[in-house]
Design goal:
The chain is α+β, with helices and mostly antiparallel strands. 57% of the residues lie in helices and 11% in strands. Strand 1 and strand 2 form a beta hairpin. Bound molecules: flavin-adenine dinucleotide.
Length: 598
């Protein structure tokens, strides 16, 4: 069975041909990033992921983590892999240069994130949470906190954790009960219990930096009374060596369906010493810096695993022999044909590939706007990019994870019964990816965020701007075949805009319309976005095929893009028609039946 291969060629294609990273980076003054440097970085990251992390994924899932006397032990090999990750300086790649980060663009960092997650979601969660915590600390922390913590976190010596959830407070964080009492010297004593804290404790890093949501004594007892605190496992001394143990302990690790090699911890804070990050009572907004980062990365995580599942499924389909092609024996000298001859097997593989590659293009598209918003000096451009990020972050989290689950199930199905057997590894991707629909705000909440806050609340303006970009692109110069798809996409984009207007009106009379339509609406925007990106990928690959110099990308690679684009437009984009029916249906279908009848 093939092992994980980092999708370096596809990433390179997207960066150079679709995102036009060189032009983007130089226009933003990011002169340390260029395509040659990037290629070297991608190759090095691929080596780490393929050779060090991916080989641990299967066995680590069997072993899981253990908790002995309050200390979490990670599966065999994780500590060494984490050391290799730190030695390579990978945690610093996107970090702020003022605190020893490398300041590389998100469009590059996102590629490495996919590789990490594709090699092991459970392992990848540790760097992912650290990076998110660094972002929030850098955006909202005092200079003293940043100077003390960020260099150690970028180097990976100290890792990050995000402590929001409590037994009675998940989606509705206004309900949290964790308290923060002021102490002498400006610190706070944090008391409460947090559950489901990913990598809340482990043995890979020497210290763990928790960003904890808690309420001050006089704070309103709702979402407007939440503050964010930094609580380290070990209190650092003035010379940055580790001092005494803080009163934060892991009392249990959850047994769970997937990502078993990551520790999901119950964390007890018993008057633990912490420091306020950002303003009092503005903690939820500050935490959103971390959560928005994690939301995109959860989508990337899902794509990583779906890509790994595809690689195994396509190899298996070429290898496994069962039955004969409907059109006659394809391999007459063998006792049966490889299952790749069967249209139904190809349907599953094409489904996986069409969504995986579009998801990759989509996260890079969102990442390009993160780079613009962060580095541009042009206010209009920044405002446009901020709108695009706000609109598309919930789509990236929810649509990418929904489609990744669908892809990993297809990847399991290609294996038949062997897909259900643990030894083959395909079932692990299904189990692992399932969490991406749940954490960081369930996909239902992402859909509400998209339709309620990002579309209806601003009268559809961000959506109009985005759709305008798509319509402009489809009206441009495209090959004859692509013009047909462009017309199809233009029609679906106009439908999405009209439906948004209709929902804005209907929701004024009945707010349940938002919750009723949100999931279908999010999927519609996801499909339109993927159509847009497939057209771009097909156009670029078509142009490269027409040129005589295809030294960067093989004709096979470019032709496959053409095939996948056709498949997407003929078989997947029309799913929008079904979504439109659902969105136009009556809210009564869901709400009329009394709760007691459920
Ligand atoms: C493996 C794992 C790792 C995790 N890691 C972390 C972590 O590191 N840090 C952390 O703080 N948390 C973490 N979580 C918690 C996770 O983010 C929450 O489980 C998730 O946000 C949902 O909260 P809940 O489980 O309390 O579900 P609930 O909030 O009880 O929701 C139950 C259902 O009701 C729906 N629902 C709730 N409210 C609404 C509404 N207003 N409108 C419509 N539908 C609604 C939800 O979509 C969901 O389907 C993790 C969870 C797991 C399982």
């Amino acid at each position: 069975m093939t092992d994980y291969t980092a999708p370096v060629t596809d990433l390179h294609f997207l960066l150079t041909q679709v995102i036009r990273a060189d032009t983007l980076w130089s226009s933003l003054g990011l002169h340390d990033a260029d395509v040659d440097t990037t290629n070297a970085i991608l190759d090095e990251a691929a080596k780490l992921c393929e050779q060090v992390i991916a080989p641990l994924n299967r066995e680590a899932d069997e072993q899981g983590c253990s908790l002995v006397e309050g200390q979490v032990t990670t599966p065999e090999g994780f500590k060494e892999a984490y050391e290799a990750y730190c030695e390579g300086g990978w945690g610093a790649l996107g970090g702020d240069p003022e605190f020893d980060g490398m300041g590389m663009p998100k469009t590059l960092v996102a590629c490495i994130e996919e590789m990490l997650q594709g090699s092991s979601m459970a392992f990848g969660l540790a760097p992912m949470l650290t990076a998110g915590a660094c972002l929030a600390l850098n955006a909202h922390g005092s200079q003293a906190l940043k100077a003390r913590y960020l260099p150690k976190m970028y180097s990976g010596e100290w890792s990050g954790a995000m402590d929001l959830t409590e037994p009675h407070a998940g989606t509705d964080l206004g309900l949290i009960r964790t308290k923060a009492e002021p102490m002498e010297g400006g610190a706070y004593a944090i008391t409460g219990t947090k559950i489901f804290i990913t990598w809340g404790d482990h043995d890979m890093a020497e210290n763990i930096v928790h960003l904890v949501l808690a309420k001050l004594p006089d704070a309103p007892d709702n979402a407007k009374g939440i503050s964010m605190f930094l609580v380290p496992k070990f209190l650092p001394n003035d010379d940055d060596t580790l001092g005494e143990r803080n009163a934060v302990t892991c009392s249990a690790i959850e047994k769970k369906m997937g990502i078993k090699a990551s520790a999901t911890c119950v964390m007890n804070f018993d008057g633990a010493k912490g420091w306020l990050v950002g303003e009092a009572n503005k903690g939820l907004a500050a935490m959103f810096t971390m959560m928005n980062y994690e939301r995109l990365t959860v989508g990337i995580q899902a794509v990583g695993a779906a890509e790994a599942s595809y690689q195994r499924a396509s190899a298996y389909a070429n290898d496994r022999i069962q039955g004969r092609a409907l059109t006659g024996a394809a391999e007459p000298n063998q006792t049966a044909d490889p299952i790749i001859v069967h249209p139904d097997v190809r349907r599953m593989l094409m489904h996986m590939r069409a969504f995986n590659e579009a998801s990759r293009a989509f996260y890079l598209y969102v990442a390009s706007h993160l780079d613009i918003a962060k580095y541009t000096t042009d206010d209009n451009l920044r405002t446009q990019s901020e709108g695009r990020i706000a609109l598309l972050t919930p789509v990236a989290k929810a649509f990418m994870s929904d489609m990744a689950l669908s892809a990993t199930i297809a990847g399991q199905q290609v294996f038949g019964g062997h897909g259900f057997i643990r030894e083959w590894g395909q079932e692990q991707y299904v189990r692992d990816v399932r969490i991406t629909q749940i954490y960081e705000g369930t996909n239902g909440i992402q859909a509400l965020d998209l339709l309620g806050r990002k579309v209806i609340a601003n009268n559809g303006q961000w959506l109009k701007d985005y759709c305008h970009e798509i319509l402009l692109f489809v009206s441009g110069a495209l090959s004859i075949e692509l013009k047909v798809y462009a017309a199809q996409l233009a029609e679906q984009t106009e439908i999405a805009l009209a439906l948004a207007d209709e929902l804005i009106t209907r929701s004024q009379k009945n707010p349940d319309v938002i919750g009723d339509s949100a999931n279908d609406f999010l999927h519609m925007i996801g499909l339109v976005s993927y159509g847009y990106l497939w057209l771009k990928m097909a156009q670029e690959s078509h142009q490269l095929l027409e040129t005589t110099h295809q030294d960067q990308f093989s004709a096979d690679f470019l032709n496959a893009k053409q095939h996948c684009c056709r498949y997407f437009f003929n078989r997947e984009l029309p799913r929008i028609n079904h979504l439109v029916y659902c969105i136009k249906a009556q809210t009564d279908d869901l709400m009329a039946m009394p709760a007691s009848l459920f």
